[in-house]
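Technical annex, item 7. During the second reporting period the consortium partners agreed on a shared format for inverse folding records so that results from different sites could be compared directly. Each record opens with the tokenized structure and is followed by the designed sequence. A conforming record, contributed by the partner at site C, is shown below for reference.
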């Protein structure tokens, strides 16, 4: 089962409600929630929620490491099989489109570059800036460079390290070597709340994060003196709160910018999900509201009755197992 949608749309609450109903294991499909250093700012499920049903791939990597799509795919497929072996239904929950695509469509089998080349690529982006390295990539691998935004330092570093390590660009690898998708019957719930509701929820959640220790979380992250090109250092809210800690920005400005940047990201997420099917049409439920947390069975019946009915019917049709 897949529960997908933009940040702050209520995915975690819905996944938890569904997992309770179908005896599920929730498997993280969010590229930032894999980092253990960022429980607050990435809105990872709390200990109480994790105790309700099994959860997998939440907070499993240190911020000093870079979790790739290939790494996640391997771990996620293993977690799905662990769930099936235990007689449970895997519930993939998140908002990272590339992760879902690797799960449902497969992924290019790209060799892992040596650590020395990976470090060199990230150092180049940090020293020269993403635009300069993008210009260099365009000279050596124009096909891949054409697919990347010149400001996307993380993906530019990834493209450079693959080219340096293998002699071929990312686009070449995606054509030539493909790992298969998870062999399963997918049932997908896609959340697509109105933009105004999403913006309001993002603002509320960011201020709640501040109240629950987000600033201290970022201070601990900065104390590790990590490369600014690492994914965890670019999580929503981290650059802005880091600027506050350095004295480069006041809190009001930081909050406003973090909320705005998160809102822009959710727009890109919604566009991606609108153009990429995660399951067959008959197995897909579009929920055009923000799913609110349901704390008891009666509330669940009111706010998710149609979704529960749909999911159980489609899981029964496909048996919920490979």
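Designed sequence (site C submission):
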């Amino acid at each position: 089962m897949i529960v997908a949608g933009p940040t702050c749309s209520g995915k975690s609450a819905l996944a938890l409600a569904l997992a309770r109903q179908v005896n599920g294991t929730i498997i993280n499909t969010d590229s930032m929630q894999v980092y253990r250093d960022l429980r607050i700012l990435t809105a990872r499920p709390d200990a109480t929620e994790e105790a309700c049903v099994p959860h997998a791939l939440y907070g499993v990597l240190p911020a000093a490491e870079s979790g790739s799509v290939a790494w996640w795919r391997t771990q996620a497929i293993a977690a799905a099989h662990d769930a099936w072996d235990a007689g449970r239904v895997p519930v993939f929950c998140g908002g990272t489109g590339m992760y879902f695509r690797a799960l449902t469509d497969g992924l290019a089998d790209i060799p892992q570059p040596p650590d020395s080349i990976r470090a060199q690529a990230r150092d180049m982006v940090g020293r020269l800036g993403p635009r300069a390295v993008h210009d260099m990539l365009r000279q050596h691998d124009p096909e891949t460079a054409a697919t990347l935004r010149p400001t996307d330092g993380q993906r530019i570093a990834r493209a450079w390290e693959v080219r340096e390590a293998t002699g071929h660009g990312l686009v070449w690898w995606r054509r030539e070597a493909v790992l298969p998708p998870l062999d399963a019957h997918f049932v997908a719930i896609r959340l697509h709340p109105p933009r105004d509701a999403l913006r309001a929820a993002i603002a509320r959640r960011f201020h709640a994060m501040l109240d629950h220790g987000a600033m201290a979380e970022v201070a601990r992250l900065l104390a590790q003196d990590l490369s600014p090109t690492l994914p965890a250092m670019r999580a929503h809210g981290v650059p802005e709160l880091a600027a506050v800690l350095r004295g480069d920005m006041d809190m009001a400005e930081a909050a406003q910018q973090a909320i705005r940047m998160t809102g822009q990201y959710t727009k890109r997420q919604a566009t991606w999900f609108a153009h990429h099917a995660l399951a067959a049409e008959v197995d897909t439920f579009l929920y055009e509201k923000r799913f609110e947390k349901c704390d008891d069975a009666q509330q669940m019946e009111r706010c998710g009755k149609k979704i529960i009915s749909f999911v159980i019917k489609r899981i029964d049709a496909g048996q919920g197992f490979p």
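The chain has two domains: 2-108+180-318, 115-176. The longest strand covers residues 89-94. All partners now use this format for quarterly exchanges.
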